[in-house]
Amino acid sequence: MDSSIEVKRVTNRHELLTFVRFPWQVYRNDHNWVPPLISAQLERLDARKNPFLSHAQVELFIAYRRKKPVGTIAAFVDQRSNEYLGEHMGGFGFFEVIDDYQVAKQLLDVACQRVRSWGMVGLRGPTNFSDLDEPGVLIAGADCPPAMLEAHTPPYYQTFLERYGLQKYRDSYAWRVDLSKLGPNLEAVPPELLRVFKAASEKGWVRIRKVHLEDWDNEVALVHKLFNATLQHLPEYVPISADEFRRFADQMRPLIDADLALFAEAEGKTVGFLVAIPDFNRVLWRLNGRLFPCGWFKLWWYSRRIDVVSFKLLGVLEEYRHRGIDVLLYLEAVQAAIRKGYRWLEGSLTSENNPTVVRLAERLGAERYKHYRLYQLFF
């Protein structure tokens, strides 16, 4: 053990700000890193504003060497997830560290010790609390910036975690498509998908509608219900609570374009949904974590230049799958994105345990341009 390294628990506001600001030290020479908004990170760690913390134990730690911060980690237990899955797993997240394995080891040691003291039998991560919060370590694709809700990590994080003994838990992927190659009328879309699209469109039994932003509360409740219902078949999925989903949706609301948030209706009910957003990470990159004093102007100015649309949510109820509804939703949104002048489509994150969506991306000719991994370790 390196005696020059001291790991301390965050106990006050000053230390919390040090914790939140530390990533700037790791990524200061990485032009593909997108700095998060400091205010948003502080809200995420505030039990009054983040409903996840109502059912979780969380402690934050900073590693110091000669009084200078050199790494951070959060150790937590999601009691709701453990109860649902019948597990006793701890989690770690907000894992940031300089290129020094001994620092990483001591941070992971502390996280393991902490969750074990809470009665857990293992550690899983990194994730900044949930699968909607930049989960995983980047395995491939560090040569370009991440889209919103995606992580960006140095290559040595993978090396450090595996050297420590953590093993793969689950992989996820991000995809991209050059929209200019599809043609303005989708003429370059694979013929078999066009046939599915036209058949679903022309039969008239499915209706696609845009989100009603003026009825936000009810629309969010509907997406929440569909989100949980369409993912419940995945072995590791834990239904997200209404409060947590509402927080996520309200954060996304300023970015929502009604032309890119769609519902599929059939036989008198809503059976599927798709949500895509302009990739505002292209703007956040220029704000350097702050909206003041000039951030709002930059947000307005650079948002006009966003040329990437990010497909974030797509789901169809199980009894309506394999009937072309996913293709219909996807290509309706693609057409809208092309009309609006977007050049690239980005889709993330897709779990390897969700082969239906993976196959759809592959059939559309999407390039898998980022690869993420969650790890786990049993004590």
What string, H for helix and E for strand, traces the elements in order?
A: EHHHEEHEHEEHEHEHHEEHHEHEHE
Please give the domain count.
2
How many extended strands? 13
Fold-level CATH name of the largest domain: Aminopeptidase
CATH architecture of the largest domain: 3-Layer(aba) Sandwich
Helical segment count: 13
Mean pLDDT: 92
Contiguous low-pLDDT stretches (5 residues minimum) are none
Question: Please, could you describe this protein's structure?
Answer:
This protein has 379 residues and is α+β, with helices and mostly antiparallel strands. It folds into two domains: 5-133, Aminopeptidase (3-Layer(aba) Sandwich), CATH 3.40.630.30; 176-371, 3-Layer(aba) Sandwich (Aminopeptidase). 36% of the residues lie in helices and 28% in strands. Strands 1, 2, 3, 4, 5, 6, 7, 8, 9, 10, 11, 12 and 13 form a 13-stranded mixed β-sheet that branches. Strand 4 (89-97), helix 5 (101-117) and strand 5 form a beta-alpha-beta unit. Helix 7 (191-203) packs across helix 12 (325-339). The radius of gyration is 21 Å and the shape is globular. The chain starts with a strand and ends with a strand. The model has no long low-confidence stretch (mean pLDDT 92).
Label this structure with key terms:
379 residues; alpha+beta; Aminopeptidase; 13-stranded mixed β-sheet; 36% helix; globular
